[in-house]
Amino acid sequence: MAEEQLLNVARTDEERAELLRWMYATLRPEYGEKPLVARRAPMHELISTILSQRTTHQDEEAAYQELLTLGSWDEIIDAPTGAVAHAIRRSNYPESKAPRIQATLKAVREQRGGYDLDFLAGLPVKDAVKWLTDLPGVGIKTASLVLLFNYARPVFPVDTHVHRINTRVGTIPRMGEQAAHRALLKLLPPDPPFLYELHVNLLRHGQRVCIWGRPKCPACVLRERCDAHVIYGNNVPSFGEKPPKPEGKVPKAGDLFSAGGEG
Ligand code: SF4
């Protein structure tokens, strides 16, 4: 049985929403307030997010910078796909990402006559998400990052860190990252600064404490309300690891909330 299945503790939507607000408030003193400011231009965000899949931030940035040495977006579309793959070789899977990037750029140009995405700021959120996810190579995570980071639209990007922590803590039952976008968004306030800070602070927490391998639970500020910690104590298994079956019955949400904060 996968770890996530053991952590599927029954909760109402109100309990999940309250738990998310508690996580936001608990992570803030740990990682600080995060004002919502765009970190890079919209097209940079769009293409870099494609490059970032299964790639470190450092390699993603190096691949992006070398991609730009091929010239303008028009010139990148016209470049041999092998040359694009070579330019982005610091990113993982360059052979599959290169044609996707070229197809994405081409679709943006065909539909908009250029590469200005600012029209997304004026579309209803649903339509903006649809326009972006209809582009080849663009999924819900990429669309959400562009819309939240660049246009302060009320969407919530779910990356591997956000997904892992929410699964372990128990704000969502077992589900994939894509489905988690919908599940979490309906529990969260439509408040872009809140969504941005929660996303960024979960990312930090996932990189430093609630890591993919054995998480550092004794150092975790979320442990008092984390299903995984209540069930496994300080021996929460790695996210992909087949865990030992916990002894006794898996507790209900109310039991978990009163379980105390021992480390
Ligand atoms: S208590 Fe452990 S498993 Fe739970 S969120 Fe913290 S680090 Fe992750």
Radius of gyration over all CA atoms, rounded? 20 Å
Order of helices and strands: HHHHHHHHHHHHHH
Hetero groups bound?
iron/sulfur cluster
Overall pLDDT level: 89
CATH class descriptor name of the largest domain:
Mainly Alpha
- Tell me the distance between the termini: 26 Å
Low-confidence stretches: 1-5, 247-263
- Name the helicity range: 55-70%
Number of helices: 14
CATH superfamily annotation of the largest domain: Helix-hairpin-Helix base-excision DNA repair enzymes (C-terminal)
> CATH fold name of the largest domain, please?
Endonuclease Iii, domain 2
Strand content: under 5%
Structural class: mainly alpha
Number of domains: 2
Shape: globular
Largest sheet: none
Would you count the extended β strands for me? 0
CATH architectural grouping of the largest domain: Orthogonal Bundle
Would you give an account of this structure?
There is one protein chain. The protein is globular and about 55 Å long. The longest helix is centred in the N-terminal third of the chain and has 19 residues, at 13-31. It has helices at 3-6, 13-31, 42-52, 57-68, 73-78, 81-87, 94-112, 125-133, 140-151, 160-169, 177-185, 192-208, 227-232, 253-257. The chain has 263 residues and is mostly helical. The chain folds into two domains: 3-34 and 158-257, Endonuclease Iii, domain 2; 42-151, Hypothetical protein, domain 2 (Endonuclease III, domain 1). The protein has 14 helices and no strands. Bound molecules: iron/sulfur cluster. Residues 51-208 form the HhH-GPD domain. Residues 240-263 are annotated as: Disordered. Pfam families: HhH-GPD (PF00730). Keywords: DNA damage, DNA repair, Endonuclease, Glycosidase, Hydrolase, Iron, Iron-sulfur, Metal-binding, Nuclease. Its cofactor is [4Fe-4S] cluster.
